[in-house]
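Structure in, sequence out. Go:
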């Protein structure tokens, strides 16, 4: 009996010590500042400047501004879903932040900046569209779909790139089958071409197999998608339209963040827009010169560029009419975009 009592007493002492130890550990955890971990995903290869100078730049700035309070798990290159899946993945909280550029069925108004001739440089276009997003489209479009944009950047104007036949005039586009994205689908159709909408990740294969005669890209996107290895001809100075890179955070996730982290997101977003757009403009010119040694580049004169712009003006009205019929305030969006552009110039 004494042995039994001794055993029970020892067991009780061990339990008490263990409980004290657990209490101390819990107290220590409560005293430490909790690290916020967020998942961010996109379809961009890490070699793409939109990743290294965009998403990665943004993540690094948030970490710096929050002194490491926020950490990111980055899933690039379609590791989680195809390019057009990131809005749904963000809404379902599979990821916290997603690359929502290919969600134009639900988020079409941001494409106003992709219309032909919408701006002259990535820096100008980014300043205009980011201001429009913050002052109008966040409420008008994004929050209605459960997400909040953290930054939006307009790419340099897209050029027509082909492997077999050069395009040296606007008439040369007629009858061609071209890979397009965004509003360029309307533009190429208007010019008598056959537009084929597809993500950038599918462009190389489409041109290699002859599914399309050419593709549309800025020079900054050639290498990430291996376009320079198959292309033989390209235009320069043709404002065929462009593409807006938008990353958005789940609104519930955003609202759960502390105020100082929200402020860090806002600052990092503004800095990313400025940094990436300037980088893209400089790199676009640098790469055009680089590729000219192996790709025949036809540079439009100012008169030719103006002729192309004029020919594509009806695309703006066609874009707006289509969206107005679907219940989107496209005309108001165009008006606000033009007002902002004028105010910034």
């Amino acid at each position: 009996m004494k042995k039994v009592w001794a055993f029970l007493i020892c067991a009780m002492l061990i339990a008490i010590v263990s409980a004290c130890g657990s209490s101390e550990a819990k107290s220590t955890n409560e005293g430490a500042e909790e690290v916020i971990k967020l998942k961010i995903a996109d379809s961009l290869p890490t070699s793409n400047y939109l990743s290294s100078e965009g998403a990665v730049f943004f993540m690094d700035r948030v970490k710096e501004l929050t002194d490491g309070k926020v950490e990111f798990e980055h899933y690039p290159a379609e590791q989680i879903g195809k390019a057009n899946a990131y809005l749904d993945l963000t809404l379902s909280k599979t990821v916290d932040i997603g690359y929502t550029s290919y969600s134009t069925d639900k988020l079409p108004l941001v494409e106003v900046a992709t219309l032909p001739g919408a701006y002259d440089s990535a820096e100008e276009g980014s300043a205009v569209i980011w201001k429009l997003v913050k002052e109008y489209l966040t409420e008008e479009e994004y929050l209605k779909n459960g997400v909040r944009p953290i930054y939006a950047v307009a790419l340099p104007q897209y050029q027509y790139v082909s492997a077999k036949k050069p395009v040296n005039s606007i008439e040369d586009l007629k009858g061609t089958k071209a890979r397009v994205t965004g509003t360029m689908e309307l533009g190429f159709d208007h010019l008598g071409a056959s537009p084929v909408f597809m993500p950038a990740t599918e462009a190389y294969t489409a041109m290699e197999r002859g599914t399309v005669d050419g593709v549309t890209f800025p020079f900054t996107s050639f290498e990430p998608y291996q376009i320079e290895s198959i292309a033989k001809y390209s235009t320069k100075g043709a404002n065929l339209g462009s593409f807006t890179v938008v990353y958005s955070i789940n609104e519930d996730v955003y609202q759960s963040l502390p105020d100082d982290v929200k402020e860090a997101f806002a600052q990092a977003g503004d800095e990313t827009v400025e940094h990436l757009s300037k980088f893209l403009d400089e790199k676009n010119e640098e790469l055009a010169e680089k590729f000219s040694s192996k790709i025949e580049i036809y540079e439009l004169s100012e008169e030719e560029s103006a002729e192309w712009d004029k020919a594509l003006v009806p695309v703006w009205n066609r874009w707006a009419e289509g969206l107005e019929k679907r219940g989107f305030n496209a005309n108001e969006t165009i008006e606000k975009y033009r007002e902002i552009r004028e105010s910034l110039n």
